[in-house]
User: Which sequence fits this backbone?
């Protein structure tokens, strides 16, 4: 899912955005070639074909994610141009649907307090990072006519939102672990807001755009690696 859908929808968005400044972890993105749009669609098509081999529910989750990716970027719907609509789509898509895909793929998907708190936590933590990624794109987004969350909230408002969502998201993750009877995990996950909030404050400082881009990238990568290592550890230790 990471490669086919996260990668595919990012490439799809890049085709329409045609960013010249820092974006998606690339400080100087190359001009989009004619292959980008068909390549992004082919990658997502491959993902759907593979998802169908896993489980019908997994396929459905991936299909919804792909559809939301099109609606986010395509000029006819362009949810990205709506500050809070785009925010909600990313929280639901990359947060809740991403987590749900993992649960469904195990074949043990059930409606439980543990699952509900976990999906809420994943959505909120993704939502904490999302507006930070728009801070260094404000000029380009405004020139395209996109009214993003970072434009509406400003640098300080974006930082406050990132900190607030980090706190609430970490609490939800702690409640999920507690509902699953994992007290130590609850403590660890509940404290995730500390590094995430510190990272958001550091990234939102009044610095040149490229410096802000590098800081936001560090925060994103650190959060991904941190949660990835935690997940790997849990898989190994059971």
Assistant:
């Amino acid at each position: 899912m990471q490669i086919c859908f996260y990668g595919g929808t990012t490439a799809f968005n890049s085709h329409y955005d045609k960013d010249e400044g820092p974006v998606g972890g690339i400080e100087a993105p190359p001009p989009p070639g004619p292959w980008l749009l068909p390549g992004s669609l082919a990658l997502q098509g491959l993902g759907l074909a593979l998802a169908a081999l896993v489980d019908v529910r997994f396929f459905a989750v991936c299909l919804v994610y792909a559809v939301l990716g099109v609606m986010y970027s395509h000029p006819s719907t362009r949810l990205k141009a709506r500050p809070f609509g785009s925010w909600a789509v990313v929280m639901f898509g990359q947060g809740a649907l991403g987590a749900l895909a993992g649960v469904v793929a195990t074949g043990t998907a059930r409606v439980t307090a543990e699952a509900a708190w976990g999906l809420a936590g994943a959505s909120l933590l993704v939502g904490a990072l999302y507006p930070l990624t728009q801070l260094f794109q404000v000029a380009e987004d405004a020139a395209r006519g996109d009214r993003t969350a970072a434009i509406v909230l400003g640098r300080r408002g974006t930082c406050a939102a990132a900190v607030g969502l980090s706190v609430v998201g970490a609490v939800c993750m702690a409640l999920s672990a507690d509902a699953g009877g994992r007290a130590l995990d609850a403590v660890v996950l509940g404290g995730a807001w500390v590094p995430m909030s510190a990272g958001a404050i550091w990234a939102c400082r009044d610095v040149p755009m490229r410096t802000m881009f590098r800081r936001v990238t560090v925060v994103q990568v650190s959060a991904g690696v941190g949660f990835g290592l935690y997940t790997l550890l849990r898989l190994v230790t059971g």
About this structure: The chain has ten helices and no strands. The mean pLDDT is 90.
